What we know:
By secondary structure, the chain is mostly beta strands.
Amino acid sequence: QVQLGESGGGLVQAGGSLRLSCAASGRTFSSYAMGWFHQAPGKEREFVAAISASGGSTYYADSVKGRFTISRDNAKNTLYLEMNNLKPEDTAVYYCAAGRFATRTTQAYGYWGQGTQVTVSS
């Protein structure tokens, strides 16, 4: 099992940047693929980015490609999401998740954090 906890959310103006972190407990973090998802009010949870267990492969939603970067530090049991050029439509609760494969579907991830709010003002 792995427990996840996100941090780094907040309020930022459009065009600004934030860096989200996801701290994982346990010794098996490096065996999990990881993903970031977001959920805006009244909408379904959507894929943002994913990274393989080794960190060698990354995947992005088209809406964030070129603006967001997913990375991980397996020695620190931590996942990151660097978000640049933020837009009001990025406003949502951001969740990190752990699973066997780095996919775009929520069903593939068995472990989730509690989420961190990101609000982008225009």
